[in-house]
């Protein structure tokens, strides 16, 4: 049976940038059937479960295009360290302690956070326990892009083993959970994967028609070291080895990159996940997002893990992304309000190569969220787009649907037991 | 009768940076009586109303050191304009429409927002309806620093009239509401007040022992124009005219200032309100806060008005302030986690020249807030300082006390009628 939600302000994020002041959406588990202004007719109501949105704001679910949910219980482990120290002294030793249960709980906590703040789809780049996570996501109902990421600082045999594991996970789970799970291959970074290994991974991805996700140009030191060793920027090396064209890339960070790189990215059709808060917190720098946008790259947004963020609220991340560009370039109209919403929705679906979400239109899948306008920080109420970008918090989200199924209804979880999960997380962290 | 809140994690923000894992606070409307670890003894419980905090986090109330609550209903009026255009085309024409009722409602909305996000004290720089606002604040119970700000681009007679009005408001209301209201004088900015007028205002402030609040060096254009006209930076002009030493200054913004200016600020004991989100949003730039801190200036935080922010959540503002410095300087340990909490609390009380708040210790007044630790984004729970800075949201605040009186209790307003105020705001903005 279809569901009909009426009396909503609908921000469609479609090509025409349609915002419906008062309207309705009819959908089912396969797709969105109708979106229209005004009251539904008697005919449109027939055969539906109806729900009055009471003026809530309804928009596509947010897409988090770079993260590591397995690290969620490392939140706050070390807040004043730069990337390399932070990895070597804090993160990697802590990860040695992880087991199946800690990973499960960490990921459940991250899904609680994501659902409660309006994220319907996320990218997880990690090296541990992927099949278990995929199966858990099936139960929870979120949309996710998963991959077994690899570090290549090891023997050729180990490299091959890791790649085989990645590929077997990716091919087994791509399209699972009714298409909600997609997969990628993921060399961790150019400074942790020798070029030949990246070659082999990209070749495997092309053969299997899988996208490739990689950290790129996160810190200045990494670029200096790479140039010392290879005589060029890692993106230029990828181009020289003909790894860009014909590969569905999603690069995370892209902080230390310049005009000519964004030209190349645009020409080759690669995607970017911008991670402003993590880049700031670790002292990595400020990614030149205004340049990326100028080159027509559909920049998306990722939080990175909460060990370097330290939260998963994409509304705050979107706001931060916009404000940062205006501040650093001293230009208030450089990245416009609406661009923020695109980064967090439609551009996220482009970045993950999942086309049927990110905008609300008939035929697309029904991944959407609702926010309560009844907040002092949303007054005056009529300036909806402004408030979504410059005032909204994850906590304003009241409802989350993925593929037409509710995961969060009037702030209650439908598929997860929040109290139980938080109690488990507490018992582990003691 | 005293109140005793026990079973709380107490972040005192005292000189020793004391954090009490499980403890209690005894206080009344005059001051804090005891703060200690563990369980209160039978004797300490005697003659008190007792309340179990159930593990909540208890910390000093946040201090917002620069804002314009009267502008609250201009939120979202124009989000993609630089400061000068924004003022001339959007803000000033809109302000022409203000009347007593719109101002009253705008300010009530801002107080609802501030209380609900943990702000206990704020600075309001505005030119309209100050006495009415002061009387309203008395009823609501917040702490505030108020002033009738002046623009001097007018005849000498008008200048004198405005100054007289400012001074008469300031002297009449300083110390009102049991000391919760303090006042300042406020020349709007060096580009809107000729130097002679600033001279006269500062002289009046010295005579009346009042601090002076002013926008300073907000945009690059403003500094260029000022230097064309006066041959020096506005701060240098203030020094040349001997207006810095012996005056209790609070400067807002301070974006386009350099090492030598911070040396001067430090020597003269002036205070700074850093307004990161507003500076970013209007494309004004990034204030060199790391330099300010290196010079030992106790930088405080202000939101500016919601027309350029667009919210009043000081937790987000504090986080933004820290991350920004790390990002722009590419150094993760440049502004440490704890510094963020200082900026939003104790430094705020220094910036407003109100000494009995900002830190929790016996003898200080009981201005404090509580946050619920029961949030997925606060796991693992034991890393309290990290979470307060890098994960907390205004919406995590559950309780607000000023001078020992509750303004917000388990998320319910005690002294304000939120529904009524929001309904009025809605009817006005239609």
From TrEMBL, chains A, B:
Co-factor(s): Zn(2+)
CDD domains per UniProt: ATZ_TRZ_like
Pfam families cross-referenced by the UniProt entry: Amidohydro_1
Job description of the protein: Catalyzes the deamination of 5-methylthioadenosine and S-adenosyl-L-homocysteine into 5-methylthioinosine and S-inosyl-L-homocysteine, respectively. Is also able to deaminate adenosine.
Annotated organism of origin: Shouchella hunanensis
This protein's name: 5-methylthioadenosine/S-adenosylhomocysteine deaminase
Organism ancestry: Bacteria, Bacillati, Bacillota, Bacilli, Bacillales
EC code: 3.5.4.28, 3.5.4.31
Residue numbers binding Zn(2+): 66, 68, 215, 304
Gene3D superfamilies linked: Metal-dependent hydrolases, Urease, subunit C, domain 1
Origin: domain of life: Bacteria
